[in-house]
Amino acid sequence: MSPLERRAVSGLSFIYVARMLGLFMLMPVLALENDQLRYSTPLLLGLAVGIYGLAQALLQFPFGVASDRFGRKRVLVFGLLIFVLGSLLGAVSHNIWGVILARLLQGGGAVSSVLLATAGDLTGERHRTKAMAAIGGSIAIAYVLGVALGPVFYGFSGLTGVFLAAAGLGILALLPLWKLIPPIPRNAQTRMGSWRDALRIFGYPPVLTASVGIFILQMVLGASFVVLSPELVKAMHLPDAAVWEVYLPVMLLSVAAMVYPVMYAEKHKRHGRMLALSGLAIAGGALIMGMLSGRFWPVAVGAVIFFTGYNMASAILPSMMSRSTTPEQRGAASGVYSLMQFIGIFVGGVVGGWGLGIAGERGVFYLLAAVGLLLALHSWSGKRMTPLLEPEELKKYKLGRSYDIE
């Protein structure tokens, strides 16, 4: 990459890390506040966990279109300021409805599609895949750090401290827009694709496979955080503030365990098979935690297996989606992918809260196991859903070549 391209990718990755870190830090600790927040119920708690995903899903395309008209950086600043406002509201809220509104505002800063479009503006076609891979990797880093650091901030200053940390990260995310990311030429901004294009891309097999896969995966994530932190605290006999002592080694071990399967999938194009394996790992880990709830080692081992499966899938899916589309349509495809991603988080949080109220913690773990099996089945069949398409068939999607993801 050229120096300008490296600056752009570094700055955009930093924005992704800062913003998503602020969101992910809240995921493992919200459930710990169920008894402290006024008017809280399991269903409302699940809504608080997942509602930012709904706001993200609804606003991805409007933000992308606005960035075409008003400029990328202006829309990025606007979205990040909304995120900061929501974080500050969460810091002063002491009832579940205030937290729900705060999470809704956090999600209202839906700039993921704008960041992807900016990456396309500032990188040449030759290096665009590298740029997308770097940005995708930054999201994975944010997830791991957020799950590990959220409980640390919670231990020092409770939920207020976590929300304040998220606000601070949102402010830091503004800095690269002035200091690091190069100016974007007006004529370099290409459109993300119309709604008609998006609907057409929904039917393109690789994007369909990846989008449905990320929906299922993020549904698992949203539902898991309704029960996972309380279960880890109970099994390890730790105070709530010390839950980070469990999350940190669990996440480090799971990241180490997922490296080889991801490398194997990329080298041999066996994405479908590795995704199926990740679904089985999610199902197996959830089943262990559900059947042996409250026991130290089974829950610890189950959590490592569960997150290994999640991290594998979260690394493979965006790569599969990006590599199967041309630069001209990658923005629209990324918008579809992001839409399904955040809808999955919302549905997962609500379903997890509903399941907790109906069937208790074990019932939610069994539900997670079932969803993990669904991901495995979808991914295994995905190799049949993404054949090498003939050129005349590709024309109706306005896309370029495909590749076999078996």
TrEMBL record:
Residues 8-387 form the Major facilitator superfamily (MFS) profile domain. One of its GO terms (molecular function) is transmembrane transporter activity. The chain crosses the membrane at residues 12-31, 43-63, 75-94, 100-119, 131-156, 162-181, 202-226, 246-263, 275-293, 299-317, 337-357, 363-380. It is a multi-pass membrane protein. GO terms for cellular component: plasma membrane. It is found in: Cell membrane. InterPro entries: MFS, MFS_dom, MFS_trans_sf, MFS_Transporters. Signal peptide: none annotated. Keywords: Cell membrane, Membrane, Transmembrane, Transmembrane helix, Transport. SUPFAM superfamilies: MFS general substrate transporter. The keyword Repeat does not apply. This is MFS transporter.
